[in-house]
């Protein structure tokens, strides 16, 4: 497989979507565009009034914390807080508090839902071959799973099957660490997939149990593709397990190697520390200059 820098690449999955024209597949590539106070009167002294004020302010803070992200919250948008997307977008009357860091990144509209494409073209949904749609989705899922695992261990990869403008084709990737999510977000910025620029940002969603539609999971959602909760499209469990064994295993091996290397360094340091002779100033300076050079290397 080619490097993620430069030409577009295909994943290890079956290359079927190139010939049939359904959505889902594509390939990554680089592009030039991205994407208390004083009281008086009464019989109350400062201490008593200050205590009452503290109780009142504490109760207010607890109340705000309790209703944050719920329908009772008239300031913050509950849908953006739970789902990371809101059908009102920038016109929403409530705040969309976008996180500066998160374990989860959102790549908006990355998956090209073939049903949405047919609807946009006023086509006949009966013309879609569901088996072909599922196979091409599996190719897409495998390709992006492999790409996103380059930055760290994936805890969840969720792809929306919704048809609403704010959720259609959304890809949510949750990492085991915020630093891994930040590396993925930085790498995807300015890149293209299937000839379309990627729009990637941090998402407030870290618990997808509140975001996904329970009725859809049970096969009973009567809102269809325009439901405001996530309709998560899945792959076979056997395929999911195989992907996790193949790609997430590499990170487990790397983490184990780092831990073992750390133990060895610690033992080596203790052995060196037991010696009576201390390093010479020249050796200290060489180590310091070497460390400074490594920190000054710009990240690609």
TrEMBL record:
Top-level taxonomic group: Eukaryota
Gene3D superfamilies in the record: 3.30.70.330
ZnF C3H1-type: positions: 71-99, 207-234
InterPro entries xrefs: Nucleotide-bd_a/b_plait_sf, RBD_domain_sf, RRM_dom, RRM_euk-type, U2AF_small, Znf_CCCH
Keyword Nucleus recorded: yes
PROSITE patterns: RRM (PS50102), ZF_C3H1 (PS50103)
Gene Ontology process terms (BP): mRNA splicing, via spliceosome
Subcellular location: Nucleus
Keywords for this protein: DNA-binding, Metal-binding, mRNA processing, mRNA splicing, Nucleus, Repeat, RNA-binding, Zinc, Zinc-finger
Biased amino acid composition, Basic and acidic residues: 1-21, 45-55, 258-270
Main location: nucleus
One Gene Ontology cellular component annotation held by this UniProt entry: U2AF complex
Gene Ontology MF term list: DNA binding; RNA binding; zinc ion binding
RRM domain boundaries: 103-205
Domain C3H1-type: 71-99, 207-234
The protein's name: Splicing factor U2af 38 kDa subunit
